[in-house]
Design brief:
The chain has nine helices and eight strands. With 210 residues, the protein is an alpha/beta fold. The chain has one domain: Rossmann fold (3-Layer(aba) Sandwich). It has a five-stranded parallel sheet, sandwiched between helices. Strands 6-5-7 form a three-stranded antiparallel sheet. The longest helix is centred in the last third of the chain and has 15 residues. The structure holds adenosine monophosphate. The site of adenosine monophosphate (AMP) has 18 residues, from helix 2 and helix 3.
Length: 210
């Protein structure tokens, strides 16, 4: 079985940022299911057409499609996988522990109100996908990407109704996984309001490759 690390947390808790940093340090593959699903939507594939309205409403995509996307994206020969945005419910968590050797689950703990304010100001580059935030990480020129000059847009599922739906899904389906992973002895909770570097350092001193 291949080693897996999971980042768990409410939307806006910084899972993606930390998953990317850990992937760079370890050479593990970083799998972000939301990005993979959005890619399918943009490509207009059969799967993309099937999931588009679900994602736009902010609901969870069905488990069998998520498993399909995960399996199709695995890189053969990678030393391990970092899951970001997976699992999001009990069935997915059970699938994970039966298919991978789960080394660690990092729970990035953020209050609902802070998550809301982080999501509400979010903008993303329509060309290269870089993330910005109107107050926490604004672009040098409003509406324009610092990296590629692409136009900044608000993701359809960052619309207020979709945000409310995604937060509700987090508390209804995902939050309880904290206890599931804690019982398995693999959970480490980190306050998500620390700086990116502080969180990175905590993870670095917790997880090293042998
Ligand atoms: P994210 O960018 O991680 O917030 O994901 C965007 C959307 O993709 C979510 O609102 C869901 O519709 C879908 N999605 C991502 N990961 C999962 C998952 N593990 N299970 C079901 N749906 C997911």
């Amino acid at each position: 079985m291949i080693d897996a690390i999971v980042f768990l947390g409410i939307q806006g808790s910084g899972k993606g940022t930390q998953a990317k940093l850990l992937a760079e340090r370890t050479g593990f593959q970083h799998i972000n299911i939301g990005d993979l699903l959005r890619e399918q939507v943009n490509l207009g594939t059969e799967l993309g057409i099937e999931v588009k309205s679900v994602i736009t409403r902010g609901e969870l995509v069905s488990d069998h499609l998520v498993f399909k996307v995960v399996e199709a994206s695995l890189c053969p020969g990678c030393p391990g996988i970092i899951f970001d945005g997976f699992p999001r419910n009990q069935a997915q968590a059970e699938h994970l522990v039966s298919h991978y050797r789960l080394a660690r689950v990092y729970y990035l703990d953020l209050s609902e109100s802070e998550a809301l304010s982080r999501m509400q100001g979010r903008q993303v580059c329509s060309k290269c996908g870089a993330n910005y935030h109107l107050t926490n990480h604004p672009p040098a020129q409003p509406g324009v990407c610092d990296i590629c000059n692409g136009a900044l847009i608000i993701r359809a599922d960052d619309a207020p109704e979709a945000i409310a739906c995604r937060i509700k899904a987090f508390f209804q389906e995902t939050y309880a996984l904290k206890d599931f992973f804690s019982r398995l002895g693999v959970l480490k909770t980190i306050p998500a309001n620390l700086s990116v570097t502080e969180i990175e350092n905590i993870i670095q001193s917790d997880f090293t490759l042998d």
